[in-house]
Fold these 2 entries.
Entry 1:
Amino acid sequence: MAHPKLLSATPAANATAPRTGTVRLMFSERLMPRLSTATLVMTGMPGTADHPDMKMPGVSTTLSPDGKAIVLTSATPLPAGSYRVDWAVVGADTHRITGKHAFSVR
Ligand SMILES: [Cu+2]
């Protein structure tokens, strides 16, 4: 059986996007709710050297209605900086697959 694959995302991988509060990761198959999660981490900020990885507060994670996308929603638009989503998903074969998705917000 195939494992869920990250097909695309908004903002796209390594892209610099206009200010947004929503990050969407689209996968190749339906994901199991609750077992499929993602965390948004701020990895850099303009003017700040050696920014530590900082988990963003106030971010909720849900699956899209078709079950194939993880949607992270921040209570407030993300400040300018660089970010990483650490994701872990479980598909039909029940194996846990993990990955990372990096982007920036200007
Ligand atoms: Cu598997």
Entry 2:
Amino acid sequence: MQTSETPAFGAPARLFHWLTALLLVGQYVIGWLMPHVNHDTRPVGLIGLHLSFGATIVLLVLVRLAWRFSHKPPAESSTLPRFMRLAASATHGLLYALLIALPLMGWANASARGWAVSLFHVIPLPALAATGSALGHTLGDVHKLTAWVLLGLIGLHVAAALFHQFVIRDGTLGRMLPGVRKTR
Ligand code: HEM
Ligand code: HEM
């Protein structure tokens, strides 16, 4: 069996990728475990944690995108068909868009409820909607729905990564996990 390595993303890009993934796992678990939110709910306990975690995610993704735009990614495999490269770019673009839009919608909903959003009660963050805002309330429903859309897209992305590794065997996984080798 012949093995070879593929060019990988730099350490900061890989750190951003895996840290986002880890925080998202935590955020979904908190989102599903936290008490049902109604008009007299207070943002304490797991709900407070959901707000801080979510705000951390959107800030991290903004820094990650700034890094991504200022650092060229490693060259792509030229053997991949054009439609596959386009599908990958579209999925990645949509993942980034949802990683920004989803938390901002939750944040606007929190503001509309009159909840102060902060990073773990240490760094206060501005309100994204006026208290009582009808749009902010609607965005809460869209937030819950979009959380499922993001989850579906992550499922597709992970399935694609595994398909590359075990079926196409082109070493794509090694671009985010350099320890993983391509096998032929
Ligand atoms: C990528 C980040 C985020 C993910 C994956 C996420 C996910 C979720 C999930 C799974 C739920 C529960 C839905 C349900 O009960 O069916 C939820 C609810 C909620 N989230 Fe997030 N969330 C994120 C960011 C945020 C942020 C940043 C805030 C506010 C600062 C926030 C505020 C809320 C609120 C207020 C609810 C309750 C909405 C309602 O019941 O009307 N979320 N979120
Ligand atoms: C859980 C949440 C995850 C999110 C939100 C996510 C998001 C992303 C995004 C946005 C990119 C594009 C990077 C760029 O070009 O700037 C990417 C790349 C990548 N991800 Fe993920 N990812 C997640 C989990 C995973 C997992 C679990 C795997 C492995 C099983 C994985 C494998 C990869 C690989 C191999 C690449 C590089 C693709 C390439 O360069 O063609 N990701 N990810």
